[in-house]
Amino acid sequence: MRLVSIRSVTAGSKLAKAIYNDNGQVLLFEGAELTNRVLDRLSQLGFTFIYIQDERTDDIEVESVVREETKRQAVKTIKAEFQAIADDIKLKKAFNSDHFSKDFSKVIQAILSDIKKNENALAILSDMFVYDSYIFTHSLNVTVYTLGLAVELGFNDKQLMDIGMGALLHDVGKMAIPVEVLNKPGRLNNEEFRIIQTHARAGFDMLRNAPNLSLLSAHCAYQHHERLDGTGYPQGLKGNQIHYYAKMIAIADVFDAVTSNRIYRKPMLPHEGLELLYSGVGKQFDQALVEAFRRTIAVYPAGIKVKLSDGRMAIVVKQNKQLSTHPVVRIMEENDKEISPSYDVDLMEQLNVTIVETETTLVASSLIG
């Protein structure tokens, strides 16, 4: 299968990976023909990339570190528990963590089990889902990324549970934000952004006195928007004033935010999101953590078209977790001509050859030309 830009898909192509909603229902089956009407609808839903069938790359498999069933059950749990919290807030009922902490612990344990069983780099771009609300899937993705980073850094099981709970609940304070602001289908004005910023303090206030939650989880909610140089919120903390767990979640939070579909903004590809993190190293993000995060994620998703530094065109076949910037690729073109048969190259064995462009820039260049 190949991962291609919606703009470059030819009508009549067939979908290589089913698309689901957050209830686990199939919206578009694998093998479905992609008509112009279907492609337009996918674009309206926010998809910029999809997987299509291609006989030259049929053997390329997109493996997800976290199983689809784990993700679907996790989103279902997050959605139900967060909505219950929102209902309690509306009714001005006291916050009670006894109920959901057990359910969230099961979610974290399931995610950790999947991550530890799989040696592949994390790739959430491969998930073909349409969701009702960004906050639920964002909470899941941030948890997956943060736990992947924490496993890479060697934290023990007790620490992993605290980190996972902090990541899963980092945005719980948004349940106190007015729905019209939280779900606004566009950019926020200054006053709306100020209201959104209150979610960090709100989350902390909800969690800090919960008897069966670590106080660290409360501080993750409180500090995940703080930045090393003091430009974050709500307290303007600097450097070591910010808890280490919150620094980890901040990286996962920003990375998922910029690589996710939003109504008002197209998503970045993973390597673009990583470049954004590197641009903030030392000012916003801890360098060692960003480096560890790079080792955790799939920088170039399987199936995407890339251009190599020697001019050859290729498709990413699989990841090298030891060096995620140098995956195994399949050479499809040499000297501006398609070749047959194609052949695979492990870029870890040819470190002088690098990826210089991906599908996004290649498509943009062809449109401009």
From TrEMBL:
Keyword annotations from UniProtKB, A to Z: Hydrolase
All copies of domain HD-GYP, residue ranges: 113-310
Entries under SUPFAM superfamilies matching the protein: HD-domain/PDEase-like
Keyword Hydrolase listed: yes
One Gene Ontology term of the molecular function aspect: hydrolase activity
Pfam families referenced in this protein's UniProt entry, alphabetically: HD_5
UniProt cross-references to Gene3D superfamilies, sorted A to Z: Hypothetical protein af1432
Superkingdom of source: Bacteria
PROSITE patterns listed in its UniProt record: HD_GYP
InterPro entries assigned: HD/PDEase_dom, HD_GYP_dom
E.C. no: 3.1.4.-
Protein name: HD-GYP domain-containing protein
